[in-house]
Specification:
With 120 residues, this protein is an alpha+beta fold. The protein has 5 helices and 4 strands. The protein has one domain: Beta Polymerase, domain 2 (2-Layer Sandwich). Strands 3-2-1-4 form a 4-stranded mixed sheet.
Length: 120
Amino acid sequence: MSAVQLEMIWQHKQVLPYILNELKQIVERTSPIYQIYLYGSRAKTPLHNWHQLAGKDWDIIMVCKFPIINTHIWTTAKNYHIDLTIISQQQAAKIVTYRKELKELFPNSEFVESIYKNIL
């Protein structure tokens, strides 16, 4: 979903803290989270060009003990524009092998720190 939807919030100042704090806590009530990855246009675009992503969604993969299918309510609760996929460690091993554009948001915080340093 790359089209602008006025009712959806895509800005990193609001969405990134939600993903790493509130959304993470909500998911952890159901299943422990091992990793959180960013993929798609945000992972492929250099941070200094993120201004070009206005209206683009956040593509997030959470690696958990148990995959969760219906995540829609968590990603629309605050009208945030997040495509959330929650997968198992076995599924993640396959994806990480083939998807080189993944950026780890959790537990490694290097990419998150660079976002805060360069964007916020």
